[in-house]
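Before the break, one more example. Copy the sequence into your notebook; we will annotate it together after we see the structure.
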Amino acid sequence: NEELTASNEELTAMNEELTASEEDLRAQFEELMEKEAEIRHQNVFLSSLQETAIGLMHRHDPKQLLSMILADATRLVGTKHGFIYMLNKDREVFHRTHGLGLYENDLGREIPATEGIVGLVRRTGQPASVNDYPAWKSNNPDSGQFEEIRAILQIPLKSESQVMGTIGLA
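Here is what the structure looks like once it is written out:
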């Protein structure tokens, strides 16, 4: 009887060790899967940068190049909705020159260079985002437009250190 008790205790201990090992292996597997997904995302990003660099070397049409950059940017973040604003320094406005998704038929829109997210990006020279766009709309010159948008990111387009425009992703 003592032998059975000792044997049961040994089996219980081994079962606990196996369960702990299984949990450890599961955690390691999940970590590897996360790292693989991150590497895949980085590869897509690097591939996109390479395509853009090749585009820069082979294209002389800036409008076509900006279209390609916008398409790559939307693909990288997994959205269909993006736009480009370019600064008109003479008039101190940003002019929407390119659009995809919701913005495709909204070209030509102008925003004063000091307003909205584009104004913030121009002042700071850094990317800016609004994660709760519906709540932020009162600060936005586009208020009332694009009800579907939940978040926006705008990234500066620079020439040397000057912000010449923004790429917007929604």
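The radius of gyration is 26 Å. Residues 99 and 105 are 7 Å apart (CA to CA). Try to locate both features in your own notes.
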